[in-house]
Amino acid sequence: MWGYMHHNRTAHAAMDRRGPNSIVQGTSSDMAYIGGRCLQKMIWKRYHSKGKDFSLKQNNAVHDSSEMMCKIKDLPESLYLVEHALTTAVHLDCEKVYDWKLNIGLEIEIEIGFTLGDMKKWDFTEHGLKNILESQIPFAEKELKHKFKKKTIDKLWKKWGSVKIRRRKELQQVDVIERTDIL
Question: What is the pTM for the complete model shown?
Answer without folding.
Answer: 0.79
